[in-house]
């Protein structure tokens, strides 16, 4: 059986098989071998032709409806697949270049076809608003389906309709501003832990900030969610870290490599790593959940306290009959995936920007030193974080320049009107946040790093949907205040202790579009104690 829902793995499946008979060694008298070879070959040929027929039929039906929409026309049937093929930096470069061409012609949307997929990009905040505030039901894009085995079909990340509303309703109180102060101790604890690791690593030479920030962010979200500390930061060999890395890597490759959509190829080459990673991640969640539930039963944990980890809030709902234990398990995983990679990617780009722009780094340090009155060791308080002005603008500009989650996908369940374009049912909308954030009409000289773009008077001039670090509309990121508080605590704690430097320029990077935006040249920085 397939490890993924059939509709997810067979979408636009295609692979060209080349078999060299010279490399095969077999016995001509082995009839079983010949029978298997014939059956496999016949199945492969039939599968290939069924895929071609499906793609041709779909193209003939949809092409008349989209042929007049603005955007690159590509080749018949395959569309622009050759333009986006390549490494993980290629699609972003392609979409950004084509978006700039379309904007120059006065267009507000752009439609691209890729191996039968019809993808439309809004090119400004007004068009994003039309999507974000639409009452028409849409579902998450096809590429999110891979995550269901980890976070469940009912997860807020991929659920639809009433199921999504129920998930959103039970999760919203957990990230209310009144709960954020309860997480502040966790943020401070792990920020201080990271500082100690930086102190040790800085003595060895350049520091791999991306790796450190990734493990530290995992510590924060697991501690906040599960109420326990696995010390991933100081234990880089922990199997859970490897499992998360393997799973997210396979998720991205599954989205980008069509051969992985074919079940037998998946089962033959990728399924073992996928299953091992999935089992390891589920095992840790199940162990913590079992121990936590037992502690609740024995009275060691009081679910009546106001401030408690996310897992205890879920267990309280389970006791009230509002959630099953299976729901609790999957929702915990959903919170972890939503609060780990994106936050670590955001922090990576922030520290990269600080290191490459020392004049701005000094301004941040001067502001932080003034707020903390030179105290390098005390915890951050809510008042400290509110007092950050220039540092806050710096963080926001980094998130504009280097959108941590570069693409949000939606699939249309019915025809949809966006501006002057009528988009057909079954097509997809890609809100390419990187494209929106580099709109020269909104952000002149958009590749110039300028925190003053986020002065109140400048923000007031823009459509709110021209800045989307946490997506937008009813399906925006629930944990955005949680994430911003964590980011500010880590930045303020680190800049009190250290200065960061790089021998590269800010834009001397490639932008890899994976689950999150990653720097292809890494984030290797010189870290110096102040």
TrEMBL record:
Known Gene3D superfamilies for this protein?
A: Cytochrome P450
What's this protein's name? Cytochrome P450
- Give coiled-coil spans as residue ranges: 267-294
A GO molecular function annotation here is: iron ion binding
Per its Swiss-Prot or TrEMBL entry, what cofactor is needed?
A: heme
Q: Does the keyword Coiled coil apply?
A: yes
Q: Which family does it belong to?
A: Belongs to the cytochrome P450 family.
Which keywords fit this entry according to its UniProt record?
Answer: Coiled coil, Heme, Iron, Membrane, Metal-binding, Monooxygenase, Oxidoreductase, Transmembrane, Transmembrane helix
One Pfam family cited in the UniProt record for this chain: p450
Against InterPro entries, the record matches this protein to:
Cyt_P450 (IPR001128), Cyt_P450_CS (IPR017972), Cyt_P450_E_grp-I (IPR002401), Cyt_P450_sf (IPR036396), Cytochrome_P450_Monoox (IPR050196)
| Chain sites annotated for binding heme | 477
Instruction: Write out the transmembrane intervals.
Output: 32-53
């Amino acid at each position: 059986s397939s490890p993924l829902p059939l509709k997810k793995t067979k979408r636009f499946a295609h692979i060209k098989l080349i078999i060299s008979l010279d490399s095969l060694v077999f016995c001509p008298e082995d009839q079983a071998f010949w029978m298997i070879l014939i059956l496999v070959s016949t199945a492969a040929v039939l599968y290939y032709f069924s895929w071609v027929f499906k793609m041709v039929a779909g193209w003939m039906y949809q092409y008349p409806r989209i042929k007049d929409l603005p955007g690159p026309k590509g080749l018949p049937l395959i569309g622009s697949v050759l333009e986006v093929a390549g490494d993980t930096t290629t699609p972003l470069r392609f979409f950004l270049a084509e978006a700039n061409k379309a904007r120059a012609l006065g267009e507000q949307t752009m439609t691209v076809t890729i191996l039968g997929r019809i993808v439309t990009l809004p090119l400004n905040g007004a068009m994003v608003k039309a999507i974000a505030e639409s009452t028409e039901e849409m579902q998450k894009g096809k590429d999110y389906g891979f995550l269901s085995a980890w976070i469940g079909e009912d997860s807020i990340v991929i659920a639809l309709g009433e199921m999504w509303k129920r998930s959103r309703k039970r999760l919203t109180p957990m990230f209310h501003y009144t709960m954020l102060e309860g997480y502040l101790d966790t943020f401070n604890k792990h920020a201080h832990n990271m500082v100690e690791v930086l102190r040790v690593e800085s003595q060895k030479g350049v520091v791999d900030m991306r790796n450190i920030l990734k493990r530290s962010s995992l510590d924060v979200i697991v501690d906040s969610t599960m109420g326990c500390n696995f010390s991933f930061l100081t234990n880089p060999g922990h199997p859970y870290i490897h499992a998360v890395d393997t799973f997210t890597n396979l998720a991205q490759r599954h989205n980008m490599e069509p051969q992985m959509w074919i079940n037998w190829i998946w089962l033959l080459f990728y399924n073992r790593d996928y299953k091992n990673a999935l089992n390891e991640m589920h095992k840790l969640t199940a162990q913590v959940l079992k121990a936590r539930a037992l502690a609740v039963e024995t009275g060691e944990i009081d679910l009546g306290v106001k401030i408690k980890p996310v897992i205890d809030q879920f267990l309280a709902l389970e006791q009230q009959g509002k959630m099953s234990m299976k729901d609790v398990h999957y929702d915990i995983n959903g919170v972890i995936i939503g609060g780990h990679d994106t936050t670590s990617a955001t922090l990576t780009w922030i520290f990269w920007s600080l290191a490459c722009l020392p004049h701005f780094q000094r301004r941040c340090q001067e502001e932080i030193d003034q707020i903390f009155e030179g105290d390098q060791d005390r915890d951050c308080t809510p008042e400290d974080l509110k007092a950050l002005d220039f540092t806050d603008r710096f963080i926001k500009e980094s998130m504009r320049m280097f959108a941590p989650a570069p693409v949000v996908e939606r699939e249309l369940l019915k025809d949809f009107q966006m501006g002057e374009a009528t988009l057909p049912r079954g097509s997809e909308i890609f809100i390419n946040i990187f494209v929106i954030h580099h709109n020269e009409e909104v952000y002149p000289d958009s590749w110039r790093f300028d925190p003053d773009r986020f002065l109140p008077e400048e923000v007031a001039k823009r459509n709110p949907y021209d800045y989307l670090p946490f997506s937008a509309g009813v399906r925006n990121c629930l944990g955005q205040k949680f994430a911003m508080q964590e980011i500010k605590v880590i930045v303020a704690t680190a800049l009190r202790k250290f200065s960061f430097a790089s021998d590269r320029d800010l834009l001397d990077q490639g932008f890899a579009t994976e689950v999150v935006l990653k720097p292809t040249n890494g984030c290797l920085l010189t870290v110096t104690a102040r």
